[in-house]
Design a protein that fits this description.
four-stranded mixed sheet; 528 residues; 60s Ribosomal Protein L30, Chain: A; 2-methylcitrate dehydratase PrpD; 2 domains; alpha+beta
Length: 528
């Protein structure tokens, strides 16, 4: 790795394009280094993981709405959408939109935490959609996803967005654009422009993750992916982007991040280095914010030691600055203690999550968030006895660049009514690569079955898993198999109408061919 300096320049002193940060990212994406076998394996794991969590969310309202928007944009050759027949193809930016919302809705896929937050598997929907639409191979897709992960992790390591209240999708947009460019084998100059354009249109505020958190939390990364697809399309036509987007005197650093006097040092792989950043990322065993993963596992361990939870006087979670201020009491969000809060808000309340995990001995992606579960009097009582405090030691470990020291957990002190204290700590989640039960292909497949059994037919489950197993050898036709369909009667459609009218959308007949609809009832208005 080489540290690259990123800072603001006056317009008269604009660096040559080859010295601009966006160009460095583009050059890294375009570097034609072979993808290592273990990286290919992990990319397959994350494709499985995305499909699992997407299927589990198929009939949740935000996903139904996004799918309803997407089906209004049929296109050949197009891309596939989770839940629909693989023969039903939609415009790639809209397929990326629908799939991105489905993947993100449950907050249940992979994560990488460093100077900022990220869910790098959010790159998969846009890169895969473009690969399907453009007739690319499995090897092309692997090359694109390896590049997207590399750039996403690089940005998250070097540039903190959240301290300036900028949402972390500002790192996703450039990563997805670069990944698409790498998959298509585009010139560095084209990728450079796409990276800049994608960043320019995806710098949004963190209000989407503050206070009463809405369904936009699921849509935000899908928006970044959709913008990345559109950015690549535009620059392929010869159009440019705001330049230099990072270093410009009216650019991102000067006005949205640390200001014109700031300098960021971002680690970039040397030319010819393997793209292995995906191996530094980690997925979730539990459907909750990643910084709660180790604490859920710790709650499972602590529960039997505490015994009667009604005898608890206070629980203090000593943890990192990030955990305390984002999902802890340091956020100063009263909604995080409200039994009537939205699912998205409860997902960002470690006080609620820890209370339920203590009581239930685990976590469930639906039952643990149910309104009746949140309103249980004994849960509310325990929940309101929990607070977080920042511990400098855990903050230091959170930011450590040593993977053996880096930690996202904390130390918990449980004080009972009789004055006795029970303490325990856990640095990383059990499913973490350094945890008690690291996830490998078998665990990803088990998670896939746990979330898709009863929704996806067994033969379709096995077909999908077999397709992933052949990922680097897939032809363009085979790439269409990287989706999961469900029987039509199991798929809900939105009752409400939006701006887009799906009455002329294409449907698939019994032969698997898209045909124009003759039924005047809009697809978007149908209920399965």
């Amino acid at each position: 790795m080489k540290l690259h300096s990123v800072r603001t320049f006056a317009s008269a002193a604009t660096p040559a394009r080859e010295d601009q940060f966006a160009w460095k990212l583009a050059a890294m994406a375009a570097d034609p280094v072979p993808v290592d076998d273990d990286v290919v394996e992990m990319i397959g794991n994350r494709i499985i993981d995305n499909a699992a969590v997407a299927v589990a969310s198929l009939n949740r309202r935000p996903v139904v709405s996004a799918r309803g928007q997407a089906v209004c944009h049929a296109l050949r050759p197009g891309a596939t959408v989770f839940g629909l027949s693989p023969h039903r193809r939609l415009s790639p930016e809209w397929a990326a939109w629908a799939n991105g919302v489905a993947v993100r809705e449950l907050d249940y896929h992979d994560t990488f935490l460093a100077a900022d937050y990220s869910h790098p598997a959010d790159n998969i929907p846009p890169v895969l959609a473009v690969a399907q639409h453009c007739g690319l191979s499995g090897a092309d897709l692997v090359r694109g996803l390896a590049a997207a992960y590399e750039i996403h992790v690089t940005l998250v390591k070097g540039i903190c967005l959240h301290e300036h209240k900028i949402d972390h999708i500002a790192h996703l947009g450039p990563a997805a654009a670069a990944g698409i460019g790498a998959a298509l084998d585009l010139p560095v100059e084209t990728i450079w422009q796409a990276v800049q354009q994608a960043l320019h249109v995806t710098t949004t505020t963190r209000q989407s993750r503050k206070g009463e958190i809405s369904s936009w939390k699921a849509y935000a990364p899908a928006f970044a992916g959709k913008m990345a697809v559109e950015a690549v399309d535009r620059v392929m036509r010869g159009e440019g982007a705001p330049t230099p987007i990072y270093e410009g005197e009216d650019g991102v650093i000067a006005w949205m991040l640390s200001g014109p006097e700031a300098e960021y040092l971002v680690p970039l792989p040397e030319a010819g280095a393997s793209k292995r950043a995906i191996l530094e990322t980690y997925t979730k065993e539990h459907s909750a914010e990643y910084q709660s993963q180790a604490l859920i596992d710790l709650a499972r361990r602590l529960g039997p030691r505490i015994g009667d939870l009604s005898k608890v006087r206070e629980i203090v979670i000593h943890t990192s600055h990030h955990t305390h201020h984002v999902i802890g009491t340091g956020a100063n969000d009263p909604q995080k203690m409200d039994p009537k809060a939205s699912r998205e808000t409860l997902d960002h309340s470690i006080m609620y999550i820890f209370a339920v995990a203590l009581q239930d001995g685990g976590w469930h992606h639906e039952a643990s968030y149910a309104p009746e579960r949140a309103a249980r009097p004994d849960t509310v009582a325990l929940w309101h006895k929990i607070r977080t405090v920042e511990d400098p030691a855990w903050t230091r470990r959170y930011h450590s660049r040593d993977p053996n020291e880096k930690a996202f957990g904390g130390r918990v002190t449980v004080v009972l009514e009789d004055g006795r204290a029970i303490e325990d700590d856990l640095a990383v989640a059990d499913a973490h690569p350094l945890g008690a039960r690291p996830f490998a292909r078998a665990q990803y497949i088990a998670k896939f079955h746990a979330l898709t059994d009863g929704v996806v037919e067994p033969h379709e489950q096995e077909r999908f898993l077999d397709t992933v197993a052949r990922l680097p050898r897939l032809t363009a036709d085979g790439l269409a198999g990287l989706t999961v369909s469900v029987p039509p009667e199991r798929l809900a459609w939105c009752q409400s109408r939006g701006l887009f009218d799906a009455s002329d959308a294409l449907e698939t007949d019994s032969s698997g061919i898209d045909t124009a609809r003759t039924d005047p009832t809009p697809v978007i208005a149908k209920i399965a």
